[in-house]
């Protein structure tokens, strides 16, 4: 087990979330442009007669900050949100305080026009507020000193550098060491030349009754407590050196700390391999090298020159490097640590080093891994091929890297899209039982709803984007949360958003329930866009929306609205059967003219119950065997696989994992955006669905009541004869073990809640606790004969 070093050890995530009165003021560096890119430092020296037992403070900034106490980093933030939900962290400084002189120091930065699309901003500012009068001496105001750092400049990633791939994440950084105030965070640093901070405005709680003037707020940030835990932070080292020119590093570099000397007036290049994709704060410790240029580039994989193909990710020979760049310009000082302000995503790191007249020594290269602190609790074992375990391992690592303060792709966008997040959050909940990031995503997406009723396709986002079906999938996320997480009051609080989304769609519907049009950007699957007339799959998504909403309303909302949703679903369902069913092909078309057919429409027809019983089974048989249908990519295969299970064909699931096996053969360590060789992103969490379907479909563990209050277990073992596993449940752990012998199934189930077990048409009631039983072939035959007589 690895040792985790948490930089947020002082962060109090268990404090009550009640609104508070803020006494501190937002501050900035006088004369600094409020919205331009820049890096700023703040310091506050204070004395204590004795070390206190508690010293909680509340801290935030725009865009980002790192907080240090007596030279040690104690917090990073704020957790991403929007101006109406601006997060602050609560930190107990007491363990790091001492009697006498203490120094709080913060670095605050603004990416300006180059900030990521997921980064909301009003202007550069910093605030820190003592919890009570006892801590008020450190409140931000003119007692804080500040400095605008001229050493930093932004290095935006140009689209032509990555062959015009879409990139909207953080920019690269250049740091000129000669202009940097080295040691600025330490108590020994002399800040006498720094100027007093400028007060911008008062700090405001989102609960306006707690502000200085109730109901009024002059600042743009409405502060709310951080609602997710601090990110995991642990040391990490690069695995191997793959290429070198201009210098010969010592044996063991970079896996172990081994100094590398770059002679004067030398050009050197090193290609380093982490051996799997990671998300980390890279750290480069350098000495000497005045006048040198130390360039670092980061990539998930290397590219076949002149193409958007990657081939095998383990291969580096004959490939080219594309990616985000950081540049460090040494000043000749000793043991300078260059660490970007924001974490980087990479498997490969390319160092391009040019020295001048001074020798440069790379004292060390290391990193600090960062991601949401998920702890894997689910287990799976079987007598199946080893690649099943490998698929789960790669999916788990993909899920880790796709989860930071929000769900995201790790490299190119770092944005929380609904379609991706729905799958990623289900994988997280089944593997860990931790639904806090899922709840955060649902809430953030709901907060983007505009007057017409739709959510954005992604949140947080400084640029609006509407994808109407994503608003429907947001309802699906809420429905998933309701099924698997025991948190009914939160789900109830989201029902106004559900009603608003369906209200928007109702205004687009004809009398028979079908859609007259679908404006905005319409996404169905990776690489496929609405062509103006093939509305069938989108209408089927709408049917799902009504069905999900009816479930939620009937239990937590309005019975009248539930009846309305059921009626709307019934009308639309009948129309879809009439318009899209093609009896000749035994399939559902995408368009009314029956010129386009896809796996997508047919999977959704089964999931929504437009096709049921033997028709559903026949439809899915054709859906997975007819190569003429438009094929689902790795993302939408989730819905295809779910439809197979619903149609009673769950035993096919393991045979459907060919695309994942193909990717394993290409050396991937995380699931790419698509299973095609021209996948842009190599770490895209929407390919993680095996990390819940192995439990939900193969082991058959599913929820049969709100909040997992009852369990429904229906294994679909396929070719397996032995399988076992466990998942975390809101009330404990749920474990199963199966053995198939000569057609008989021996089963053991340990469940914290009651429910039922079903296998090949035989159903058994399950009490809470441990159950062991055998289902015999003759029992199945007897049941079948009884069914025929009836």
Quick rundown:
The protein has 790 residues and is α+β, with helices and mostly antiparallel strands.
Keywords for this entry:
single chain, 790 residues, alpha+beta, 11-stranded mixed beta sheet, 14 helices, 28% strand, globular
* Percent helix: 10-25%
Distance between the termini: 58 Å
**Basic shape:** globular
Mean pLDDT rating: 94
Query: So how many helices?
Result: 14
Question: Your description of this structure?
Answer:
This protein is of the alpha+beta class and 790 residues long. It has 14 helices and 37 strands. The strands form eight sheets. Strands 10, 11, 16, 17, 18, 19, 20, 21, 22, 23 and 24 form an eleven-stranded mixed sheet that branches. Strands 5-4-7-2-9-12 form a six-stranded antiparallel sheet, with no helix packed on it. Helix 2 runs parallel beside helix 4. The radius of gyration is 28 Å and the shape is globular. The termini are far apart.
Protein topology:
Elements: E1 25-28, E2 38-48, E3 56-62, E4 64-69, E5 72-77, E6 86-92, E7 100-110, E8 125-130, E9 145-149, E10 152-155, E11 172-176, E12 195-196, E13 198-202, E14 204-205, E15 222-225, E16 232-236, E17 240-245, E18 260-262, E19 267-288, E20 293-299, E21 324-329, E22 336-338, E23 344-354, E24 360-371, E25 379-382, H1 387-401, H2 418-432, H3 436-446, H4 468-484, H5 488-493, H6 495-506, E26 523-525, E27 528-529, H7 536-556, H8 559-580, E28 581-582, E29 587-588, H9 599-607, H10 613-625, H11 637-646, H12 658-665, H13 690-698, E30 701-703, E31 711-713, E32 722-729, E33 732-741, E34 744-751, E35 755-759, E36 762-766, E37 769-775, H14 777-789
Helix pairs in contact: 2-3, 2-4, 2-13, 3-4, 4-6, 4-7, 6-7, 7-8, 7-9, 9-10, 9-11
């Amino acid at each position: 087990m690895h040792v985790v070093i948490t930089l947020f050890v002082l962060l109090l995530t268990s404090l009550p979330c009640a609104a508070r009165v803020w006494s501190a003021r937002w501050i900035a560096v006088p004369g600094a442009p409020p919205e331009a890119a820049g890096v700023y430092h703040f310091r506050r020296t204070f004395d204590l007669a004795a070390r206190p037992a508690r010293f909680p403070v509340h801290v935030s900034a725009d865009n980002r900050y790192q907080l240090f106490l007596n030279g040690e980093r104690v917090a990073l933030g704020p957790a991403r949100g929007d101006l109406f939900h601006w997060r602050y962290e609560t930190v107990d400084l007491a363990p790091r305080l001492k009697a006498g002189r203490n120094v709080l120091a913060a670095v605050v930065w603004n990416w300006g026009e180059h900030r990521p699309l997921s980064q909301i901003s009003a202007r550069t500012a910093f605030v820190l507020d003592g919890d009570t009068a006892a801590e008020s001496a450190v409140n931000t105001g003119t007692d804080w000193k500040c400095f605008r750092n001229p050493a930093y400049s932004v290095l935006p990633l140009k689209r032509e550098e990555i062959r015009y791939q879409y990139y909207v994440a953080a920019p690269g950084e250049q740091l000129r060491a000669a202009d940097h105030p080295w040691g600025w965070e330490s108590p020994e640093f002399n800040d006498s030349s720094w100027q007093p901070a400028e007060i911008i405005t008062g700090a405001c709680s989102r609960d306006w009754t707690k502000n200085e003037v109730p109901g009024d707020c002059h600042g743009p940030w409405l502060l709310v407590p951080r609602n997710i835990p601090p990110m995991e932070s642990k040391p990490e080292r690069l695995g191997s050196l793959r290429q070198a020119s201009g210098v010969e590093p010592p044996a063991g570099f970079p896996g172990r700390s081994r100094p590398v000397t770059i002679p004067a007036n030398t050009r050197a290049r090193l290609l380093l391999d982490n051996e799997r994709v990671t998300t980390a704060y890279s750290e480069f410790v350098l000495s000497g090298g005045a006048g040198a240029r130390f360039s670092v580039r980061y990539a998930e994989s290397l590219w076949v020159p002149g193409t958007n193909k990657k081939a095998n990710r383990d291969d580096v020979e004959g490939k080219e490097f594309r990616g985000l760049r950081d540049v460090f310009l040494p000043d000749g000082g000793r043991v300078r640590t260059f660490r970007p302000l924001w974490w980087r995503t990479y498997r490969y790191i390319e160092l391009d080093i040019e020295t001048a007249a001074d020798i440069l020594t790379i004292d060390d290269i290391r990193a600090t891994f960062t991601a949401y602190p998920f702890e894997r609790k689910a287990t799976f074992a079987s007598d199946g091929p080893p690649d099943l375990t490998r698929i789960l391992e790669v999916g788990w690592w993909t899920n880790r890297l796709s989860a930071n303060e929000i769900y995201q792709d790790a490299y190119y966008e770092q944005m929380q899209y609904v379609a991706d997040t729905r799958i990623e959050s289900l994988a997280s909940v089944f593997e860990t039982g931790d639904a806090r990031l899922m709840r955060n995503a649902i809430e953030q997406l709901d907060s983007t709803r505009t007057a017409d009723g739709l959510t954005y396709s992604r949140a947080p986002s400084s640029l609006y984007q509407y994808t109407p079906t994503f608003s429907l999938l947001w309802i699906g996320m809420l429905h998933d949360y309701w099924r698997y997480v025991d948190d009914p009051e939160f789900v109830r609080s989201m029902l106004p958003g559900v009603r608003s989304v369906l209200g928007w769609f109702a205004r687009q519907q004809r009398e028979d329930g079908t859609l007259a049009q679908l404006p905005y950007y319409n996404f169905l699957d990776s690489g496929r866009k609405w062509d103006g007339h093939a509305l069938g799959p989108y209408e089927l998504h709408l049917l799902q929306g009504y069905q999900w909403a009816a479930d939620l309303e009937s239990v937590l909302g309005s019975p009248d609205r539930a009846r309305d949703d059921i009626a709307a679903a019934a009308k639309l369902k009948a129309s879809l059967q009439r318009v899209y069913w093609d009896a000749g092909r035994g399939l559902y078309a995408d368009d009314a003219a029956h010129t386009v057919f896809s796996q997508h429409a047919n999977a959704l027809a089964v999931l929504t119950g437009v096709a049921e019983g033997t028709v559903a089974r026949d439809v899915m048989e054709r859906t997975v065997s007819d190569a003429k249908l438009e094929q689902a990519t790795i993302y939408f295969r989730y819905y295809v696989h779910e439809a197979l299970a619903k149609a009673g064909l769950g035993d096919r699931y393991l045979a459907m994992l060919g695309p994942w096996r193909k990717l394993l053969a290409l050396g991937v360590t995380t699931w790419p955006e698509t299973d095609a060789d021209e996948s842009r992103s190599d770490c895209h969490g929407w390919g993680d669905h095996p990390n819940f379907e192995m439990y939900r479909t193969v082991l058959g563990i599913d929820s049969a009541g709100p909040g997992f209050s009852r369990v429904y277990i229906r294994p679909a073992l396929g070719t397996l004869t032995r399988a076992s596993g466990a998942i975390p449940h809101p009330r404990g752990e749920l474990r199963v073990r199966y053995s198939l012998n000569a057609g008989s199934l021996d089963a053991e189930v340990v469940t914290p809640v009651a429910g039922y077990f079903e296998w090949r048409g035989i159903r058994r009631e399950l009490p809470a606790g441990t159950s062991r039983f055998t289902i015999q072939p003759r029992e199945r035959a007897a049941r079948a004969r009884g069914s025929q007589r009836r």
